[in-house]
């Protein structure tokens, strides 16, 4: 989530002295998760990075993903409840011990009767659906709330990036399995006994169940998707016709079950499988990887930038014409790996690109909880 600070706030370390504690609530239906609490967030940061991998189970295709960003403004000394303690200490040292104890006791009673803990305010919300599902990271809009107290407003840019992946349950879970008799057109249209499993929009068939248990590849696979026509046989009971079009030609597969009840069971799951492929749209066409919260947490973090985009921009210029125009490296005697930040730091006179860090940002590499500090290449010249 990018933040907006004025150039004097971020680059010159002047102006806005506020510090925040930020976390998010993510919900789909009645299932709610909270993210890591990022603290402190000050003008030295240009974006918020949450390393959490959140997984929702048994979600329908018409789900609504809701993101809520909550923030709390911290005290100047980074301690939320330190001001009353300071007052008590000052009272004890400035006036008599007896009067100081009475005043301190009254302050303590006042604190105990109030709300315990910090008060987090809703800063922004976002809603995503199946249409925003993608296998890679995309940028989405947020609706920023307008607070009455502008000093408590977290300077959000109004956008956030995330990877919203979806995988239908029928992809990772078996829908139906059992013994089937399949009409094999390659052996003089003979009926062949096989064991079948319906999963991941395919009906996979093995000669024996033991072959499936041993992890062997199926001997035959029948596609079951939104284009598949599934219907019971009109002439023969216990038979199901599965029709697919491949390269303009109709491919018909016929399966036969042992009993009529088995036929109804297979017919119900086959039709449901085809409907699921239609409901889940592009999420069913390409299977997306669902990362686990434990194993993917560190690998996801490693893919993030280790510094600002400004610092990682190389000064490399290629000229494809016959005329050789001097490049930036040749003019200033730099190597192709020289970046903008190294060029600015090597200059003898201070420039706009040189900046000092906030006194509270001693952890220069990462935030608490392993969050990488990154910077966005834009700022605002005026305050809201």
From TrEMBL:
<feature type="domain" description="Anillin homology">
    <location>
        <begin position="1"/>
        <end position="133"/>
    </location>
</feature>
<dbReference type="InterPro" id="IPR051364">
    <property type="entry name" value="Cytokinesis/Rho-signaling"/>
</dbReference>
<dbReference type="GO" id="GO:0031106">
    <property type="term" value="P:septin ring organization"/>
</dbReference>
<dbReference type="Pfam" id="PF08174">
    <property type="entry name" value="Anillin"/>
</dbReference>
<feature type="region of interest" description="Disordered">
    <location>
        <begin position="336"/>
        <end position="384"/>
    </location>
</feature>
<dbReference type="GO" id="GO:0000281">
    <property type="term" value="P:mitotic cytokinesis"/>
</dbReference>
<dbReference type="InterPro" id="IPR012966">
    <property type="entry name" value="AHD"/>
</dbReference>
<dbReference type="GO" id="GO:0000915">
    <property type="term" value="P:actomyosin contractile ring assembly"/>
</dbReference>
<feature type="compositionally biased region" description="Low complexity">
    <location>
        <begin position="337"/>
        <end position="351"/>
    </location>
</feature>
<protein>
    <recommendedName>
        <fullName>Anillin homology domain-containing protein</fullName>
    </recommendedName>
</protein>
<dbReference type="GO" id="GO:0005826">
    <property type="term" value="C:actomyosin contractile ring"/>
</dbReference>
